[in-house]
């Protein structure tokens, strides 16, 4: 049996396995607080066998430990210091999949970098920029600056020049330039009077008579009683079949004035439904990028003014162009994303990825990620590829509910750290699909870096250099 160690000083450590002793109680408390092998609460003067027990003690004692870290147990003087410590030292792991290629990323800035700089094999950097500019265009349309009215005026000028009537009318784009001699060469036949068609004489009775009610050779009592038994029931014929009620005549003969049956409708397709919606209600600018020259929806015709025979820029710059190529070059050079600006600290960044890193760091002095409309700003910044929501940390949700004494009233109340006002939250990012998203065409082959301009047809499939 090993000999027990006698403490040299008069105040031994309260942990049984610790042989240390001190001259005063204050020195002993300092020892337990600073020693890594001791799980000691200095505010409550309690010893715990493990760190988990100490963490639970701090979690369920909000009157003394409302600014203690739930992960490492470190105490802070302010709530903002605790929040900053947790967000920098104990980040929650996240998985953000790319909706194009399916690759996952642990941080939102890495996903945006993957899309912005063309690392995705499905979504090119030009397509990503197009989605971002489209979000900016939609936000301008939904604002109260009068931009929507001007945008609709540009579209209405093109709609007014269209002539969708099947008969009559003269198109503005096709004036009559033919000579009168060409019209006189056409031989027109003289109009003949219309002769009325022979209408069938309506029958005198409502329904055609049945064969058994017709008198072919005189009606007798015997013929009327034939086929009946004493019980009044009809007997079957010799062949076991009955005579047809309408005498074998077709429906056209029986009902000459009935309208013909309509042919079945065509098979439903999404393309036909979209075309019908456009014809009835106009272009859905929310889900269509008709202004983007690098999109499959590119259509400059709605911005053409037939009176001045020029194309209007769909953006607020109000420039006009004689050719479609001039309008295309103008949009790609003047209305693309060059720099990104933080709306809170007003700093400029050279890329969307740099601004995303600035927003993702909740420990920075800028409080843009703590704004109530941060989700709206993030959706506009990333073109609809990212969304965010503030949630309670997952290591706080599993806490049980206990009863503690309220310091203000002195009564026992139920308390759960995940439901408390001082519960630690984090920003949960998730991948989202833009409203103008179109399923990309499958690439049959890709050689070298890729790009929109280097596309070619390989075995009837889209390919890129």
Rg, rounded, reads: 42 Å
Distance N terminus to C terminus?
81 Å
Overall body shape: elongated
List segments where confidence is low: pLDDT < 50 over at least 5 consecutive residues: 217-241, 449-465
Structural class: alpha+beta
Beta content? 5-15%
DSSP helix count?
15
The main β sheet shows up as: 3 strands, antiparallel
Strand order of the largest sheet: 7-8-9
- Mean pLDDT across residues: 75
Tell me how many strands there are.
17
User: What is the helix fraction of residues, given as a range?
Assistant: 25-40%
Question: How is this structure best described in words?
Answer:
Helix 5 runs antiparallel to helix 13. Among the domains are: 68 residues, no CATH class; 28 residues, no CATH class. Strands 7-8-9 form a 3-stranded antiparallel β-sheet. The protein has 465 residues and is an alpha+beta fold. Helices cover 29% and strands 12% of the residues. The C terminus is likely disordered. The chain has 15 helices and 17 strands.
List keywords for this structure.
465 residues; two-stranded antiparallel ribbon; elongated; 15 helices; alpha+beta
